[in-house]
Amino acid sequence: MRVFVSGTGTGVGKTYVSRALALAHRARGESVSAIKPIETGCDPDPLDAVALAVACGQPELAHAPGFYRVRPALGPLSATRSGETPLDVEGLLSAITPYLSASNLIVEGAGGLLVPLTDEATILELVVALRLPLLLVAEDGLGVQSYVLSAVRCALARDVKLAAVVLRQPAEPDPSTATNVDVLAGLINAPVIGFSHVESDRELEAQGRLILSRMLRFP
Question: Which helix (H) or strand (E) segment is 135 a member of?
Fold first, then answer.
C-alpha cells in the first residue's frame, strides 16, 4: 500500500494515522517506509518525522537529506516570507522519489491539503506530482462534513485517487461525531473510516489494521 496522508487542517491526527498504518504493516511482517518530507516547528528535531520513522523501524528516515525542515512553527510560504530558506519543490520531489519504489510507503504531508508551499504550489501539487493515492484525515466533529467534501472535491478535480477518508475522534466528541462517518460514506466513493482517540502503539496498530482491511475490501 502506498499513500499520501494529508488532512483538512493542522492537528487533525495525520501523524497518529500514519503511525497506525506503519505499525500495522510491521505487525503483518511487511516492510514499510514512513516519511514526512516537510516539517516546520523543528526545535531542533522534526518530532512528527521522528515518530513516523520509529514506527516503521527506520529511524534514519527522520533526517533524510533533501527534506524541508525549519524552526518556526509556520507554513512553508509564511516561513519563507519571515526569512527562512524557501522550499524548493523540485528538489523536494527529487528527495522523495527514491522512496517511491517501496512496496509499502506512507508520505505524510504538512497541515491541510491546500497549505501553500510557494507562491505557486500547495501540498496538493505534491500529491499530483508523486501520483500517490490520497488518504485524507479529519477530526470527527461539527463542520467536518464540509471540510472533507471541500478537500475531496479539490483532489478529484486534479485526478487524484482517493484511497480513504479517516475521521479521528476527538478527546471530547460532540453530537455530530455519531453521524459524520455515515453521512460522508453516502457521499464519497471511498472508504470512510472512524478512528478512535487512542495513543498507545498497541491501540494504534489495531486501528491501522482496521484501515488497511477496509481499504483492501473496498470495491
Answer: strand 134-139
SS3 content of the chain, % helix, strand, coil (to 5): 45, 20, 40
In degrees to the nearest 10, what's the CA dihedral of 63, 2, 140, 145? 120
Across the range 50-64, mean pLDDT stands at 97
Q: How far apart are CA 116 and CA 166, in angstroms?
A: 23
**Tens digits of per-residue pLDDT, 161-190?**
999 999 999 999 999 999 999 999 999 999
Give the residue from 58, 82, 54, 61 showing the smallest Cα distance to 70: 82
| Confidence label for 218 from pLDDT (cuts 50, 70 and 90) | confident
Q: Residues 19, 27: contact at Cβ < 8 Å?
A: no
- CATH classification of the domain holding 94: 3.40.50.300
With residue 109 as reference, give the H or E element that holds it. Answer: strand 105-112
Is residue 74 within 8 Å of residue 82, measured between CB atoms? yes
How far is it, in rounded angstroms, from Cα 61 to Cα 53? 6
Q: How distant, in Å, are the alpha carbons of 23, 57, 84, 201, 202 from that of 27?
A: 6, 11, 40, 11, 10
Question: Is the residue at 1 inside a domain?
Answer: no
**Residue type, position 88, single letter:** D
Active-site positions read 36
Please give the distance of CA 18 from its chain centroid, rounded to a whole number.
6
Q: Domain of 141?
A: 6-214
119 vs 114: CA distance, rounded Å: 12
